[in-house]
Design brief:
By secondary structure, the chain is mainly alpha-helical. The protein has 2 domains: about 70 residues, 434 Repressor (Amino-terminal Domain) (Orthogonal Bundle), CATH 1.10.260; about 35 residues, no CATH class. It is about 45% helix and about 5% strand. It has a two-stranded antiparallel sheet. The termini are far apart.
C-alpha cells in the first residue's frame, strides 16, 4: 500500500511505519531497540522503516512474528492484524534463534543434531561409556 496523507500531522505516513508503531504500543510498549534485538537488526533500521525512509525489509516476516501479526498486515495488504498470524508462545530470543538455525539445516544435519540433543537431555546411560561424565572409565572390556 502506498503512503497516505495524515491531515492531523500534515505529512505523508508510510503504512509499514504506522503499523509497526501501532503494534509496538500494543505489545506492552516494546521499544524499537528491543524489537531490533529480537529480529537481529539495528535500532536504526527499525527507525528507518517507521519513518518511511526504508519501505521494505527482507526481515519483515521476523518483525511481523515479534509483533504478533503478519507481513500482510504490516504492508497494508490486509486490515486484520491477526489474520493468519502464527501462534508463537513466549520463548526467549536464544530459543527462537536455535529454532531458526535448526530450520535452515539440511535433513541429515537435523538428524545428527537431534541425536546429540536427545543424548544430552536423557538420564545417564545404564552402561558406563567413555562419554559418561559421572562414571569412571575402566578401559576396554576384558575378554577371557
Amino acid at each position: 500500500m502506498a503512503p497516505y496523507w495524515n491531515a492531523d500531522r500534515r505529512r505523508w505516513v508510510d503504512v509499514i511505519g504506522s503499523r509497526i508503531t501501532e503494534r509496538l504500543k500494543l505489545l506492552d510498549k516494546m521499544s524499537q531497540s528491543e524489537l531490533a534485538r529480537r529480529v537481529g537488526l539495528t535500532q536504526g533500521t527499525i527507525a528507518q522503516l517507521i519513518s518511511g525512509r526504508s519501505r521494505s525489509s527482507s526481515h519483515l516476516h521476523k518483525i511481523a512474528r515479534e509483533l504478533k501479526t503478519t507481513p500482510a498486515y504490516l504492508t497494508g495488504e490486509t486490515d486484520d492484524p491477526s489474520s493468519d498470524a502464527p501462534d508463537i508462545s513466549d520463548i526467549d530470543s536464544e530459543t527462537r534463534e536455535l529454532i531458526e538455525l535448526f530450520s535452515a539445516m539440511s535433513p541429515s544435519d537435523r538428524g545428527a543434531l537431534m541425536h546429540v540433543a536427545r543424548s544430552m537431555g536423557s538420564p545417564l546411560p545404564a552402561k558406563p561409556t567413555v562419554h559418561s561424565p559421572n562414571l569412571a572409565y575402566a578401559g576396554p572390556p576384558r575378554t577371557k
